[in-house]
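Protein modeling request. Please complete all fields; requests missing the sequence field cannot be processed.
Requester role: graduate student
Desired output: 3D structure, token encoding
Chains: 1
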Amino acid sequence: MRPKVLILTGPPGVGKTTVGRILTERSERGVHLEVDHFFFFIRSGLIDPWEPESAAQNEVAMRAAAAAAARYAEAGYATIFDGIVVPRWTLGVIRETIEAAGLPVAYAVLRAPQSECLARFVEREGSPDLLDPEFVAGIGAEFDDLGELERCAVDVAGLGAEQAADALAARLAVGTLDL
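Delivered output (179 residues):
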């Protein structure tokens, strides 16, 4: 079976990047793509990704990141695609790009209370002023009702990073996150 690509998502501060790093470090061959970096490659004309007029730019960045994830997975790497991947925004183009390479996709939405996410963000970045709580709440709300993808939610409230990685690994192992 060809390796699958795990799309790992959730609101800012939920622990996506830390959990993604842990999981890839546990793999014999692992790649952890932090998708936000694909926006930083745009050196002029960048539109903030949360602005309504950024839709076309966001699709290009997500397709480029998804194509990179597919190439790594094709080469046999356990691949984690880490970023804010909201079902109604960019999940479709990411999934389409990866599946076009003939690769299976898993989708995991890490969840924790907004207060916990904000506290993690402040701890990581050092200033509560760097993140607008309303913005975080808005992104978090995008993951509140996943509809048919609700089965892909992974509750990490109160868990340490290693515990959260264990919970996610267990769900991956039984296939409940496969799309």
